[in-house]
Amino acid sequence: MSSSTAPRGSLFSGIGYYLLALISTAFFAFPIVWMTLSSLKSDVDISAYPPKWIFSPTLESFRKLFTELNAMDALINSAFIVCLATLFAMIAGTLAAYGLARFDVKNKNFIAFEVLSIRMLPPMVSVIPLFIIAKQLGIFDTPWLLIAVYTLNGLPFVVWVMRVFIQEIPQSIEEAALIDGCSRFECFWRVTLPLLLPGLAATMVIIFMFAWNEFLLASILTSSEARTLPVIAASSIKAKAISWGLGSAAGVLMSLPVVVLVLLMQKYLVRGLTLGAVKG
Amino acid sequence: MGIEVKSVYKRFGAFTAVNGVSVDIKDGEFFVMLGPSGCGKTTTLRMIAGLELPSGGQIKINGRDVTYEEPRHRDIAMAFQDYGLYPHLSVFQNIEFPLKVRKIAEGERKKKVQATAEKLGIAEYLDRKPGQISGGQRQRVSLARALVRNPRVFLMDEPLSNLDAKLRATMRTEIKKLVTSLGITTVYVTHDQIEAMSMADRIAVMRRGDMVQVATPLEIYDRPRTEFVADFIGSPPMNLFPAHFDGKKGIAATVQPFADSLSGEVADRASSFADAQGQFYVGVRPEHLMIVRDGVEGAASANVDFVEPLGQTTNVYVDCGGHKFIVVTDRTEAKIGDVVGVAVTPGKSRLVARN
């Protein structure tokens, strides 16, 4: 009899899984959908109760965002700062991870732990020293300050994650390349790096998002010139009222690049997020 | 010419992996380093390859001192146990890789890759990725990648141990034929005595970082120098009978008739095999023992413990005064519990040093 119950059981569990997936997706997607809808509503429609599901969409909130809050400048600032910081952190972090994974460095486990321990520090602790240093160096309210801060913020994560990805690559593959005529760097460039692509993509997306969404440091270490999108978005909350339309529009604007990035990297991300991607 | 290794040693912290190894490997020779895991054979090979730097000593390849050279400047090729193929490249690109790195023109590269692939019977898989072919085919690709640029020296680190037994046997003969026909100096590391015996021109048996004996396969089989070599080579292994050498009285052994069968000239050399206390072994290969009638002159009297008929031969486990050993013989009438005589084929007793 078990043969007839087995398929029915799996059918039910199949439907169960889909139902569960549907509910949890709806749960997590709801705020995003709500935000997107709000960004397209007029102020009157936003505050309507019960909520309006059918309304005539308007781009008024986006217009205000770009005219009143100078969102374009902030978008350019954000893109410039976050892209450069991500690039620097990826390059320096991956090279450091390679050294820690492959070479005989004295006390390398201690070094690796030290690198990670920086992340244990609450960011708030570093704000005042950073502020004073920036003032002294004259880089307060310039993109370079945030680039440096975000690079340093991302580094420990890159070092730790990339170290694991590098260790996953069998050493004999690199040794084969060394014997086949490569120098250490050629070997890294031609053999290790292509094998690391999934890991690099996954790590990059994550530190990009860290920096892209970062608010605390950006709000304190900039005043007008180097303001980034999260700071602008937050300014939709004013002392007397919250401008829901403006805030939602800023939220949508901020989400778009991340969505695009994830879609572009999807192929690598799936492999990169499940470690052990490289098997001969 | 060939490879000269001069008192090379390697320490990892307090652990000595290779303990002052010296050996001359001749041009075109097939040289096998054999030993259990952790004996230093792979470390020695990796030092020849340049993947590991020696803590001391000197390595010369074709007369040039390469002790501290980078691997790429040594004109060597290497095959790895796990093949070391580049998973992101096709079979063709894998074989082409060493030529490409050396900036050889594309037309010539194609020709060479094609020719090598055909020689190794992998021409039809050139478009596939290493992940899409079988273990045996992967090993062929790794051999092709090594041979495509006609290296002077070919290093192999247990290349067959990930293959199944049947494939191993065919690959063994194939590799041996291939490198012999190309006249490449080959250093081959294995823990498999059959691979060593069947392929090597010379074998170095290694133990705890030392080369215990370096000789031709048959020499090693016939005249193992130490207890370790005697035990490691041959299946079932050589029977060892503890013996004592006393200058005046000659040799006293646990099973005296076997010591007595040592030819006079061999017995004279006993002093060089004996340790400080005069201890050594008399060794006899199981197939050099015969079951005879009990009481025959020159034979030791023994009880039959167990009989193992294998078809072609029969293993007879005997007990001679508490000393147990094995006789390999043709089919025999002997049964468990019988008392038989065991005699040595004349001239086949050997002197074996303790470890």
Topology overview:
The complex is a heterodimer of chains A (280) and B (355).
Chain A: H1 2-39, H2 43-47, H3 60-68, H4 71-102, H5 108-117, H6 123-137, H7 143-168, H8 171-179, H9 184-213, H10 216-221, H11 229-234, H12 244-273
Helix pairs in contact in A: 1-12, 3-12, 4-7, 4-9, 5-7, 7-9, 8-9, 9-12
Chain B: E1 3-12, E2 15-25, E3 30-34, H1 41-49, E4 56-61, E5 64-65, E6 76-79, H2 91-101, H3 106-119, H4 135-147, E7 153-157, H5 165-182, E8 185-190, H6 193-199, E9 202-207, E10 210-215, H7 217-222, H8 227-232, E11 239-246, E12 250-253, H9 256-260, H10 264-268, H11 270-273, E13 279-284, E14 289-292, E15 300-309, E16 314-320, E17 323-329, E18 339-344, E19 350-352
Parallel strand pairs in B: 3-8, 3-9, 6-7, 7-8
Antiparallel strand pairs in B: 1-2, 1-4, 4-5, 9-10, 11-12, 11-13, 13-19, 14-18, 15-16, 15-18, 16-17
Helix pairs in contact in B: 2-3, 2-4, 3-4
Describe the structure.
The complex is a heterodimer of chains A (280) and B (355). Chain A is mainly α and 280 residues long. Chain A contains 12 helices and no strands. In chain A, α7 (143-168) packs across α9 (184-213). Chain A is globular and about 70 Å long. Residues 1-5 and 275-280 of chain A have low confidence and may be disordered. By secondary structure, chain B is an alpha+beta fold. Chain B contains 11 helices and 19 strands. Chain B has a 6-stranded mixed sheet with strand order 6-7-8-3-9-10, sandwiched between helices. The chains are: A mainly alpha (280), B alpha+beta (355).
